[in-house]
Amino acid sequence: TKINVRQLGTDPAILVDRDIFSMQAVGGNLDFEITTNIQFEVKLPDWITPPSEARAMRKEQRHYVVQANKNEAKRSGQIEIIQTNPQQGVAPLRKLIAINQDGLSEYASGSTANIPQDEKLRVVSGTASSYQSPDGIEKSFDGDYSTLYHSAWANSGQNYYPITLTYNLAEATNVDYVVYYPRTSGYNGRFHKFELQYSLDGNTYTKIDDYEIQDKAAPTRLSFDKPIRAKSFRFIVRKGYGDGAGFASCAEMEFFKKSDKSFDYKSIFANDLCTEVRPNVTETQISAISDPFFRNLAFYIKEGKYNKEFRVASYKPYQDPAIIAQKNKTFACSMLDNPTGIYVKEGEDLIAFVGDTHGFRNLSIRVQNLDKPGGDGFNDPVYYSLYPGFNKIRITKPGLVYVIYLVGEGQADKMKPIDIHFATGSVNGYYNSQDPHLKDRWKELLSKANYKYFDVLGKYAHLTFETQAFRDFTPEGIELTKTYDSIVHNEWILHGYYKYPKRKPLTRMYLHVMYHAFMYATWYHTAYVNSTQRDILNPDKMRNPHSQGAAWGPSHELGHVNQVSPGLKWRGMTEVTVNIPSEYITTYVFKQPSRLQVEELDYYRNNRYTKAFTEVIAKKAPFCKAGDVFCNLVPFWQLELYFGKTLGLTPRLSADGHSGFYPDLYEFLKVEPDQPNPGTQQTEFPYAASHVGKKDLTHFFEQWGFFREVNTIVDDYGKEQMTVTKQRADEVKGRIKNLHLPDMKDIALEYITDNNSHLYKNPDKTLTKGQSASISGNTIRISGWKNTVAFEIYDEQNNLFFIADASYPELGRAVFTIDKNWNSKYTIKAVSAGNAREIVPHN
Q: What is the pTM of this model?
């Protein structure tokens, strides 16, 4: 027992337990305790009154009512406690209590502390028909969401399913709903299809229903039409997500009984969302509401001062992006197309009123805090399920709130939007160029944002970066969204998503800030270190016609999400073929110079084409040993230069804006069966390119080493064997030959570049001779040669050892440095687009 003693002594004194009060605009009860040894009176401001009804109180206590403040401005006042019978000639003793009351200018939610929680029922034991030690079923009711139950790893047997999980409560009781928490790291074992049963005695079970849920990290609530009295529940898992046959896993399984002490808010509010007060409800009735949260909400709505923007919204259904991704053999696009513009703090209660969910059982919110020094906050979200009606959620981590309304294949057009009212949390807002109510309000919305991060949405792209970075580097949101929409839209076109509409992703692509690494991409998102914001959030830098420095990174990372695996992403190609769209966006869309063409390499005094020609073609290296991702990129970009830029088979030149060589090639790689290993995947690509391009490209790919024998380990985000045999090469070449396509041996296609591609429209064997080569040390300068695409350097034994791009630094003038000391016996040969050669005299 704790006893507080307050001794005043013999001198007059007044003590109060609080010196200052802060009240909301709605007003409310004001209680404080006075301890004194004198007689006194209390003087009040005119907006503070005694209660309308007398109530029993101790002599030392005072109870008053603060009236509602209907003005925009805050107001302040004092309660004065004055001694009434001071000694003659002695000033009366006074004590002041300061009162500050909010105005109606900005809504602040009332306290949610009095809103009762549903009762979580205690699970005392459980059993599992299959488990992997030490992850037994007890891990699913230990109160720790980071541990989990997992079924046996050996899942190849035909009798692996069903897996039965039984949970026993302490005693038989009414149960209103069950919440299944799946694992959040990885997907193995998340329930897919299962049956739920209950038992009153633990022996005889009755079926409740069959369920099918999506592969997602958000919890699923299984609500019952009426309370079920039970002691035990049994889950019969018939199918789980995961490798092979799948598994069964569970982070936590929780059972709840609804509280019967909740305030009947429907008696005050006119709809289930609590966005309107019933017309017949008076101010007096609102003042009498005992719960401060509902009293405050009703007061603001009644006064017409409740700003519903961002708090009340309708959220669209989106098809789960993993569905399209699996069909396209790519990563998935964004799952965050429903931002709310609300942010929450750790420990606060988020109150959400949810309208008709149209039978959808998997509605949830994701709370995402990107503020993770030295890491990526995208990977540490918290999910909370939402259900029709009133939801009270205790927030365990701060962050922005996103509604997750992801539906199955073909369901997005059939499902209706869901209305949600977030009555607590703080409004941060977001920008959406596609919303007519938001698109012209960039500066206003950004100035009102109070959270560290801000969402910016276009038609195809969604960016979440630091609010201050947007203020510093993005003058107008519409220009930024146009820039990123252009990148995403054109990458989708290149990948065939518009020529083959069933391939088109149905959600945006997501870009966000993080605080480690540089840039990367994986399922659902692409990430960019905070130091890049000054470049990638500046539309002028992104579209700078003189440099692709800013635009290359986002084009590259978004390209990773669209990368087709394994058809164009076999081991060794992860950082190679991703740059096909990078080159496409920067050169075709933003009209920037090609990195392959203009980036000078110190060693060669020439460009990346020269390095690739030399390292692979001249040295007859296997393609996988080019030693440089840009060397590997060259033949893939050359295919676009020839079929696209030269022959017009590219979306940028096609009549419909969608068709072209690469859209057809990507589609071919999606529908054809996948090859089993890197060697067969690499050698299959020449067949695919020949088939789609309707040209026999055997010679081209021979030059680039696709068919050269190799037996090595390739290290590319993991090590794997790369083997190409003569037998396999001959088999693929034979299949290409059987297509009976025009042969390309008379065209030096291996030397096409951005600068000389026009020479391949009608490739001429004739070369126009120019000046003799000028040689200084190892550096060679050649001018005046026309219709020349490359210069080949042969040693004294007539072995080709170096090849230079004849169009660098410009057509008709080449400068390059060979990787050997010059010998007067060396020979220089000029090569035409028509594959003719002429010796170039030298000094």
A: 0.91
